[in-house]
Each structure stands twice: as structure tokens, then as C-alpha cells.
Design goal:
- By secondary structure, the protein is of the alpha/beta class.
- It has a domain at 204-426: TIM Barrel, CATH 3.20.20.70.
- It is built from 17 helices and 11 strands.
- The chain has helices spanning 3-36, 43-46, 50-58, 65-78, 83-88, 119-122, 155-159, 220-232, 253-259, 272-282, 304-309, 334-350, 376-393, 406-413, 435-444, 458-463, 479-489; strands spanning 204-209, 237-244, 247-248, 286-291, 296-297, 327-328, 356-360, 398-403, 424-428, 448-451, 469-473.
- Strands 1-2-4-7-8-9-10-11 form an 8-stranded parallel beta barrel, surrounded by 4 helices.
- Strand 10, helix 16 (458-463) and strand 11 form a beta-alpha-beta unit.
- Helix 9 (253-259) runs antiparallel to helix 12 and helix 12 runs parallel beside helix 13.
- The protein is elongated and about 135 Å long.
Length: 490
């Protein structure tokens, strides 16, 4: 080998050793950095050294982790995404079907989430009908004919079947759109529309007077003065009891045929309702005939013994209200259905100028009656027939109901009143439990009925333009006092 070749070989070997040394340093350094990367921030130590700069210039595409991370961080902080980029991958909410609360609808026969107490809570003192056979009540051998003791329902009676807010916080189902009802709008407000107060703008401003209110032979002067008094207190409608506990508060031939007596045993002037209607119409007011207690009676009813003998009563005791045992007349029986229908037809013929008749939640079967029989369809059939025949006798009379909201009425009273073809519906809310939820139903129908215990709610109801009518049921005091408090509250 020549000297020249030998020198070249040595230079080559030296060059290789340098490159291997550099490569070993890089690999060793990389391995050391890999295992110590969590403890040392190399970017602060060597990111600006000449060696790194040389490597970066020599091998621009070689990934150097700490340099690349710095560059990416700079890019992220310096570049602000556009609104289009921000929303590019965002979910389009219009394409997602969000499940809504299921409303009550007569077109859907489905179970709604209960918002009211269960039947067991409503009648927690009632025996289990599946274990105990409830006999029919036994008629008394002798019943003294005596005047029924005048009384208003106690607050406990009105609020017994309302939800206990301490036990349940479940909101009521959202009501469905109001079904078609034969709407009747009375023109009984003789005031200039430009000067009406919010209270005076209500279609019906009504007060309930019990059927006992005209007992003891109230004379014509008393009745006419009474009408004018309620007019001055701001009311335009008197809802007066004409029926209750199985008998009429007027002379009735239908009652005489069935009972042998023309009316309830209470003392009243035969012309009382004629005077009441006449004076009310003179004052620009209306009179609605209130069929108190509907299809229910108690042991004091003049027809109680007759109903037992004829087996008109549904087996079991209706304990919808505390301390009162009611018995339900079975309108599925043709004889009973005919009795009620004939009473109603006779009434609208006898008093052709009456503005409306009103029935309440006593037109219904309590859910806890023995046998667990679903009487909903038959009650609907009976009510439809009764309304139809009433309209044929006097089409100018409105058939109204003051009942529970449609969900509760159907579930606990077999009263599917949305199918009854009534003219007006007032939702009774005699308790503050779930009051705001109940207003969802009130706004869908024709108004609300409250007791005089809830007059602190009156201003709220008056100011709500979606509530068409407000009815007041006195339970704490006499109607005159309740009416005065209504005026003072406004």
C-alpha cells in the first residue's frame, strides 16, 4: 500500500469515528432526555444552542420534539379560529328531536305520569275493598221528615282530595290544546269597555250561594236586595244552588212522581228563583243554577230509603271528602239515568230564562269504590244524553261544569269531561298545592273557581289576561262577607 493510500485510509477512519461519536451522543442524549423528560424542560436549556441550530439547519425535516412543540404552541396562540370553524363540527340542534313532556290528549289513550296523590292517599282510612265485602247501607225503618241543617261545606271537605305538597313535588302534566267546546260568551257587562278595570274585564265574575241560602221563606224584597248587593261588590253572575242531596229546591212534578213529595223538605218561597232571575237580568247579571252534590247523596237525603229499596246505589261508600259518607246513584241504571235527565229537562222548561246550569265534581265516581270498575265510558254516555235532551228542551241554556283538571278528573273520578260536549269548563282549585301548575289548565279552559281562603291569589288571577273568568266559593264566612272581601282585595 502506498503512503498516499495509507494516509487516505487513516483520514477516512478518523472521519467515521467522528460521525459515530456524534451519532452516539445524539442517541445517548435522546435516550437520557426520554427518561428524564418529565423532570427537565430541555427547551429552556438547549433550544437556542448552536448545536441544535446546526441540526435544525442541516436537517429541517428531522422532528425535534421540544422545538416542534414550541412552534405548534406559537401557531395555536397566534391563529384565532373563525366563527365558521368554531361551529363547523357543532351538533345541529334542529336535527335532534328533544323529547317533550307528554300532554294529556283525548286522542291518545295513554297513561300520564301521576301528579296527584294515589287513590290510596286520597282514602287512606278506607278499608281494602279487595278483602272486605262492602254491604249496601240499610234503610231506616222510620225517617223523620225534618228540615236539613243549613251549612256550607267545610274547608276540609273542599281540600281533602287535593295534593299534599309535602308528600309530592311532581308537576302536573302540561295540558294539551283545548278541545272544541261549545263556547258561550254572555253579554252581561253593561260597562263602557274603555273604562273597564282588569276585574271587570273578566267574562264571568261569579259567587256561589248555597241552596240553603233561600230557606226560611226568604221574601221577594230580600232576594232582590241581595242581587243588587252582589252587583255593587263587582260580581256579574250568581251561581245559586237549586238541587242537592237527591231533591230539588223548587216544586217539581218529577220529584213528586218518584218521591211523593214535590221538593226537599226545606222551607222556601215558591217564587224565589223567578225573583232572583228577574232582578239579576235587570242589573245586567246572570243566574246559573247550581246542581250541588250531583249524583251523590248521604243518609239525610229524602230519597235515601227509596234508593236503597230500588238498588239505585253503587255498592260501597264514597269517601272523597273527610267526615262525610256519600253514596253514589248508579246512572248506569236506566231508571236512575231517566230520573236525572227528566229533572234537568223539567228545570230548563220551568225556568226558561235561566242562563246556565252548572254541575261540579260530584258528577263522578270516586276511584276507590269497591270492585275497581271502570265507569268512565258509561258516565260519558249518560252525561252526553242528559245534555242533548236538555238542549232539545231549551237550547239557550249553557251546560257548564266546575271540575278538576281533565287528567285528575278522569283518573280519580271516571269523569272524562272533555268528551261530554259541555259549553264551559271552570277548573276548581280549592287548595294552594300545585296552584301554579293548575293554572296551566285554567288558561286552556273558561276560568277558575277558588275558595274565599285564597283571596290572596285574587290579584294574580285578575291581572292574568289569559284567565277568562273567576268564581268564588265562600267556605269561611257568609257570602256577603266574602263578596265584600273580594271588593276590598281589588
Amino acid at each position: 500500500m502506498s503512503k498516499k493510500d495509507s494516509d487516505s485510509s487513516r483520514l477516512f477512519d478518523a472521519g467515521c469515528l467522528v460521525e459515530l461519536l456524534i451519532l452516539t451522543m445524539i442517541l445517548g442524549g435522546s435516550y437520557w432526555w426520554f427518561i428524564e423528560r418529565k423532570n427537565i424542560d430541555l427547551s429552556q436549556v438547549i433550544s437556542n444552542t448552536s448545536v441544535v441550530s446546526w441540526f435544525h439547519d442541516k436537517f429541517p425535516n428531522l422532528p425535534i420534539p421540544f422545538l416542534n412543540s414550541q412552534e405548534k404552541s406559537t401557531e395555536l396562540t397566534s391563529k384565532k379560529p373563525s366563527p365558521a370553524e368554531l361551529t363547523k363540527n357543532q351538533t345541529d340542534s334542529s336535527t335532534i328531536e328533544t323529547p317533550l313532556p307528554t300532554p294529556y290528549s283525548e286522542k291518545k289513550d295513554q297513561e300520564l305520569t301521576p301528579s296527584q296523590p294515589s287513590p290510596a292517599e286520597l282514602t287512606k282510612n278506607q278499608p281494602d275493598s279487595s278483602k272486605t265485602k262492602t254491604p249496601l247501607p240499610t234503610p231506616s225503618s222510620e225517617k223523620k221528615e225534618q228540615e236539613l241543617t243549613p251549612s256550607q261545606p267545610s274547608p276540609a271537605e273542599l281540600t281533602k282530595n287535593q295534593t299534599d305538597s309535602s308528600k309530592t313535588k311532581t308537576p302536573l302534566p302540561i295540558p294539551s290544546q283545548k278541545p272544541t267546546i261549545n263556547s258561550t260568551k254572555p253579554q252581561n257587562n253593561f260597562l263602557d269597555a274603555k273604562t273597564l278595570t282588569p276585574w271587570e274585564k273578566k267574562q264571568i265574575r261569579g259567587i256561589y250561594l248555597s241552596r240553603y241560602y233561600i230557606t226560611n221563606n226568604a221574601n221577594e224584597k230580600t232576594i232582590r236586595e241581595r242581587v243588587r248587593y252582589y252587583k255593587k261588590q263587582g260580581f256579574n253572575t250568581i251561581i245559586h244552588g237549586v238541587w242537592g242531596n237527591g231533591c230539588t229546591m223548587y216544586k217539581s212534578e218529577v220529584m213528586e212522581q218518584i218521591l211523593g213529595a214535590k221538593s226537599c223538605p226545606n222551607k222556601f218561597n215558591e217564587q224565589w228563583l223567578v225573583w232572583l232571575i228577574d232582578e239579576a237580568h235587570k242589573q245586567g247579571m246572570e243566574v246559573h243554577a247550581y246542581f250541588e252534590k250531583g249524583i251523590k247523596i248521604d243518609e239525610n237525603s229524602p230519597i235515601f230509603d227509596l234508593a236503597i229499596r230500588k238498588k239505585w246505589i253503587v255498592p260501597g261508600v264514597d269517601k272523597t271528602y273527610d267526615k262525610i259518607e256519600h253514596y253514589v246513584l248508579d246512572v248506569e241504571m236506566e231508571e236512575v239515568a231517566n230520573f236525572f235527565t227528566n229533572i234537568l229537562v223539567e228545570f230548563v222548561k220551568k225556568y226558561p230564562n235561566i242562563d246556565a246550569v252548572q254541575w261540579d265534581d260530584y258528577l263522578g265516581y270516586h276511584a276507590e269504590l269497591p270492585g275497581k270498575v271502570d265507569r268512565t265510558a258509561n258516565l260519558t254516555k249518560f252525561t252526553q244524553r242528559m245534555i242533548k235532551e236538555m238542549k232539545e228542551a231549551n237550547n239557550s241554556v249553557s251546560f257548564d261544569i266546575c271540575h278538576h283538571n281533565p287528567y285528575w278528573a278522569k283518573k280519580y273520578f271516571a269523569a272524562d269531561w272533555e268528551k261530554w260536549s259541555v259549553d264551559r269548563v271552570f277548573i276548581q282549585v280549592y287548595n294552594d298545592d300545585n296552584f301554579q301548575e293548575e293554572l296551566n289548565y285554567v288558561r286552556k279552559y273558561d276560568g277558575i273557581a277558588i275558595s274565599d281562603k285564597q283571596l290572596h291569589r285574587l290579584q294574580e288571577l285578575v291581572n292574568d289576561s289569559n284567565i277568562n273568568s273567576v268564581l268564588v266559593f265562600p267556605v269561611l264566612e257568609k257570602p256577603e262577607s266574602a263578596a265584600s272581601r273580594v271588593k276590598s282585595a281589588l
